[in-house]
Each structure stands twice: as structure tokens, then as C-alpha cells.
Write a structure and sequence with these properties.
11 strands, 436 residues, five-stranded antiparallel sheet, alpha+beta, elongated
């Protein structure tokens, strides 16, 4: 077997392979033997059909299998020998006119694939520094998480008195958003349940403020500025007319944080529940602080590099972004035409996001390969279990889906990238600062 690898670009390779006649015959013979192991044919015992009969009677099928085996075997050998790590599918050139395998004749084929670009990575990352916020937990954060737990067991009591909504109330409303008299897709809902609060980070601040002015059965109107991340780019920053009708007000009745509640949610006593809350908040805060600092550090490092991105990786990231966008818009009960318009508007943003994500991922994978970072089967299994928990699906269903769709490689790469990011972060200098 002889071959030639052509460097088409920093990320694209073209591989030309020629297999001599003897090796062609060997792969045909081995394929026939494998094909005949469980073959049932009248006049012969199972698995005892002569090779010459199989080759004559099932020539098309046998030679198709043999061609596939020959191509895969030689490609894998070349990749192993030359330590090539393709980051895309291997695509055969000129499939329609591809030559067919024949006995006693050499066989040639050409394929193409993508690889990671060569990046002049730093020997280590000790020259870089990053600001890391304090992960000290405040009493307010403990209280907020405690309230979240209490709300899981809360009950609702409908209010019949004539009063306006207050913090904590759960409201049943109709919401309609219009611009120049026309409905704004995704800004309308009937019999929508919403809870109002004094949370400064609320995404519905204008709606919260407006609905507080209504009594039960009343309709109130106001305006809001369309957010900068709204699906339809043409609407961003424009002032939308909002109309809200308040149907019902429910008061949220929270349980007491006492021994009885602790046992009801699965703890032996109140002290054990409080210890869990404290540990959970600290763990969550530490992870949040670390993730934020890691992302800022990675962004600052990759900003100094320019390299070609494998198109297949960019397209995969874009597909994931658009799928998430479609799912998100689908929850807003958009009309099909409005959804298509919104998705088309989001695609340009998605392309930029996909390129940024791919640039960071390529950098981390390149570092992971240089450092020979490995991923164990146990780590993949833990990742799948976590994915099942987050999506509220059965572990076995998620595992089978991962295996059947070939997602294992994607998961391995994500874990490797995570390890590479940990390595960068641990080597960099840390400057602790107060949280914003």
C-alpha cells in the first residue's frame, strides 16, 4: 500500500491511497470467509458454502463489503502510523465515479478530512493572570436558596379581596405585545402564570411594574423596550406597547422551616437540612466563580491568537445553536412563519457565536492532545448520568441515545477540553477581587 497526504489548507487534508493487487485479493478472501460464516444456502450446510459459490452468487454484496473494509482498514492504519487526528468525517472523493474492487487489480481511492490547525501554544500559562471573585457566601444567598426549597412545597390561595399584586403573588394574566399596531411574535400569551418579585435581575421588570397597577379583572397598558437578545433583530431596542389583563391573584403560602418540613423533604432533622443548604450554596458559588474566571481567562488568551477553524466544527456548533433557538422559540407558541423569520434573524448571530465557541474549543483540544490528557470510560459514564439528571430522563435512555448517535466522541472531547481549561486556570496567576 502506498499513499500521499496533501495539505490543502491549515485544516484540510487530502489523502490518496493505492492498494496493490495482492492486498486486494486478501481483503476479498477475508470478506468472503466472514460473509459465509452464517450463510444458509440450499444444498450446503450452514457456514459451509464454498468461497467460489459465494463470490459468484453474491458478488455485488461481497465486493461492496470488501471495498468498505479495504478503505477503512487502510485509512485507520495511515491515521495510526502518522498520528493523524481527524476532527471531521472522512469524505470519499467523486463517489459517483468511484472505482470498483476487482480481483488481481490494484485499487486506488482518494478522500478528504479536516484536522486541528497547528497552534504555537505557550509552554505553560504562568505568565497569564485572571481576576477571581471571592466565593464567600452571604446570608442573603443562603436565604435565597432556602426560599427556593420552601417554594417547592408551597401552596396557592386565591385572593378574592380587591387589591393589587404584591411581591410573591402568582398571577394569571393575558399578555399582548404590539408594535405599530401589529402583534410582536413571542410577546403574547393567554392565561399565563407569572410570579412577581423584587428581584433586580428579573427579565420581566417592565411587565412586573405594569401588572402591579392592576386590580383583578382590569386591563392595563404600558410600554417596554424590546431586549437586545430578542429573536427578531429588527425589533431589538424598539419600544413595544404592552397590554396586560389580570384574571386572578394567588397568594403563595410557604411552609414553615421546621423539623416537620425537614423530614417531609427527606432529612432526619432541621439541622441536617440546614447543613445541606449551606454546603450546596457554597459549592454552587465556588463553581460559579471558577467558571466565570475560567471563561474570562480563556477569552483573554485566545484573543491573542488567529488560526483557521475547521468548517465542520463551526457548522456543528451552529447546528447546536440553531436547535436550541428553535426549541426556545417553540415554547413561545410562535406561528410557523414568525418562527422561520426569527430563526433566519438569529442565524447571523449564531454564526458569530459558533466561530467563537469553535475557536476556544480548538485551542483547548490542541492543548489536551499536547499534554496527552485522557478520558476514562467512567468519566464518560458520569457525564451521561449528569446529562440524564439535567434533562430528567432515564439514564439508560440517554446512554443508548449517546451510543446510537455517535455522541461518545463529542462527550470525550468536551471532557478533554474541560481538563485543558482546568490546567490553564491552575497554572495562571489568580487575583482575588470583590464580587460585582
Amino acid at each position: 500500500m502506498s499513499h500521499n497526504t496533501e495539505k490543502v489548507s491549515e485544516t484540510k487534508r487530502k489523502l490518496s491511497v493505492t492498494v496493490d493487487a495482492d492486498d486486494v485479493n486478501k481483503i476479498i478472501d477475508s470478506t468472503i470467509r466472514e460473509y459465509g460464516k452464517n450463510l444458509n444456502l440450499n444444498g450446503f450446510r450452514k457456514g459451509k458454502v464454498p468461497a467460489s459459490v459465494i463470490e459468484k452468487r453474491f458478488a455485488d454484496e461481497v465486493f461492496n463489503y470488501a471495498t468498505e473494509n479495504l478503505i477503512n482498514t487502510n485509512i485507520n492504519k495511515i491515521f495510526d502510523d502518522e498520528k493523524i487526528r481527524p476532527c471531521s468525517r472522512v469524505n470519499m472523493e467523486d463517489k459517483e465515479n468511484a472505482p470498483k474492487l476487482e480481483r488481481n487489480k490494484e485499487f486506488s481511492f482518494t478522500c478528504s478530512f479536516e484536522v486541528l490547525p497547528e497552534i504555537d501554544l505557550p509552554k505553560d500559562f504562568s505568565e497569564y493572570s485572571v481576576k477571581v471573585e471571592s466565593d464567600e457566601v452571604s446570608a442573603d444567598e443562603i436565604e435565597k436558596f432556602t426560599m427556593q426549597i420552601l417554594r417547592t412545597m408551597a401552596t396557592l390561595e386565591e385572593i378574592t379581596e380587591n387589591r393589587k399584586p404584591v411581591d410573591g403573588d402568582v398571577l394569571l394574566v393575558d399578555v399582548e405585545g404590539t408594535y405599530e399596531g401589529k402583534p410582536v411574535p413571542g410577546m403574547g400569551a393567554q392565561n399565563f402564570l407569572m410570579q412577581i418579585s423584587d428581584d433586580k435581575d428579573s427579565t420581566n421588570k417592565e411587565i412586573d411594574k405594569l401588572v402591579r397597577t392592576a386590580n383583578i379583572g382590569e386591563e392595563v397598558t404600558g410600554t417596554m423596550v424590546c431586549p437586545d437578545d430578542y429573536a427578531d433583530k429588527e425589533m431589538r431596542g424598539k419600544t413595544i406597547d404592552i397590554k396586560i389583563k389580570l384574571h386572578k391573584i394567588h397568594k403563595q403560602i410557604l411552609p414553615e422551616l421546621d423539623e416537620e418540613f425537614a423530614k417531609k423533604v427527606g432529612f432526619k432533622d432541621l439541622e441536617t437540612l440546614k447543613q445541606m443548604i449551606d454546603a450546596q450554596v457554597k459549592q454552587s458559588k465556588a463553581a460559579q466563580v471558577r467558571n466565570k474566571a475560567q471563561q474570562e481567562l480563556l477569552d483573554s488568551i485566545t484573543a491573542k491568537y488567529e488560526y483557521e477553524l475547521p468548517e465542520s466544527m463551526v457548522q456543528k456548533a451552529l447546528s447546536n445553536y440553531m436547535l436550541e433557538a428553535r426549541n426556545s422559540l417553540g415554547q413561545q407558541n410562535m406561528e410557523p412563519e414568525a418562527m422561520l423569520k426569527a430563526l433566519a434573524s438569529l442565524k447571523e448571530d449564531g454564526e458569530d457565536i459558533a466561530k467563537r465557541q469553535t475557536k476556544a474549543h480548538v485551542f483547548l483540544l490542541s492543548l489536551a492532545f499536547r499534554e496527552n490528557l485522557v478520558v476514562t470510560g467512567q468519566e464518560v459514564d458520569m457525564y451521561i448520568r449528569q446529562l440524564a439528571m439535567e434533562t430528567r430522563q432515564q439514564y439508560e435512555q440517554v446512554r443508548d441515545h449517546v451510543l446510537n448517535t455517535g455522541m461518545v466522541t463529542d462527550i470525550q472531547e468536551r471532557i478533554m477540553a474541560g481538563k485543558a481549561l482546568d490546567l490553564i486556570f491552575d497554572q495562571a496567576k489568580h487575583e482575588e477581587v470583590k464580587a460585582d
